[in-house]
Amino acid sequence: MKMTRVARSAAAAAAALVLLSSCADESAGGGAKLPAAPTAEGKSSGAAAERPADPALEERFLTAALPGDASLPGWTRVMWNVSTPDGEYPEDLKKACPRNNPTARCRNVLGSAEAFFDSKDKTKDVLFLIFSYSNEKSAAAAYDSAWAEYAGATQARTRVSFGALGERRDAFRAPAASRPGMNQVFFQVQVGRNLVQIAAQADAKTPLADAVVEKMASIAVQCSREAQQGVHSTAAAES
Q1: CA 32 to CA 128: how far, in whole Å?
Q2: So what's the pLDDT on residue 169?
Q3: What is the pLDDT of residue 174?
Q4: Domain-embedded: residue 45
Q5: 111-124 per-position pLDDT tens digit
Q6: Spatial contact of 221 and 191, defined as CB atoms under 8 Å apart
Q7: What pLDDT is stored for residue 93 in this prediction?
Q8: What is the residue-averaged pLDDT of the chain?
């Protein structure tokens, strides 16, 4: 059976996102091996554990947890930001989690990070957003609140699945409310003490294939997992 042009395009796009093994690049603070997360006894185990509120260290971990420039061939990173409560509460984190925010999403949050990519043809974009917490229990407690704040405000959404990634995950497709003619895919996953959200938008005529979104999610989960385990290689997708 011959593949249609749309099917061939989807297959090619999926093949271009074959997951390799690493994440943030040197321009985003990469290159140095991160310390493994401490255990309750204070020894490095390589496993995700509770992280003290050290803004400088947290910034490094958040940077390593985001996909780097080389992670998505055919896409261009147009924005990158990391916010941690260092000194005065930073404006970016304040917007996402005001000090008096009573929701579980903002309890024990140590920082946030985001990276925004455009496709070369400008018909698609994707935002990666991470909230880091002091421990896995806090991240798990924040999950429902974080999901409700985004999904609850989205109309005509359809639940979708992109594989068994992380400790817990949810996703949906829906029309992009703020951009007529665009469709969006929203994916949320808990990875250890991090909550990772991915919001991808594409022209309704050329939607992102499920395989492409799943690879993006896999990259984000791997980067977040490796950062928490003290691994800082150079995660990328093969072009």
Answers
A1: 22
A2: 94
A3: 86
A4: no
A5: 888 999 999 888 89
A6: yes
A7: 60
A8: 73
Domain presence at residue 230: no
d(CA 106, CA 102): 7
Exposed, middle or buried, 153 (CB in 10 Å: 0-12/13-18/19+)?
exposed
Pairing of strands 168-175, 75-83: unpaired
One-character DSSP codes across the chain: -PPPHHHHHHHHHHHTTEE-S----GGGT-SSPPPPPB-TTS-B-SS-------HHHHHHHHHHHS--GGGSTTEEEEEEEEE--SSSPPHHHHHHS-TT--SGGGTTEEEEEEEEEEETTSSEEEEEEEEEESSHHHHHHHHHHHHHHHHTT-SS-EE----S-SSEEEEEEEE-TTSTTEEEEEEEEEETTEEEEEEEEEETTSPPPHHHHHHHHHHHHHHHHHHHTT------EE-
The answer to whether residue 78 sits within a structural domain is yes
The most confident of 34-48, 84-98, 126-140, by mean pLDDT: 126-140
Q: What pTM did the predictor assign?
A: 0.74
Which of 197 and 150 is assigned the larger pLDDT? Answer: 197
CA Rg value for the chain? 18
Query: 192 is in which domain, residue-wise?
Result: 5-16+52-60+72-221
In a domain, 232, yes or no: no
Q: Residue 94: which CATH number?
A: 3.40.1000
Cα dist. 45→124, 136, 162, 224, 231 in Å? Answer: 40, 16, 30, 17, 12
Average pLDDT over residues 154-172: 86
Tokens linked to 214: 């799943």
Pairing state of beta strands 158-159 and 75-83?
A: unpaired
* Domains in the chain, number: 1
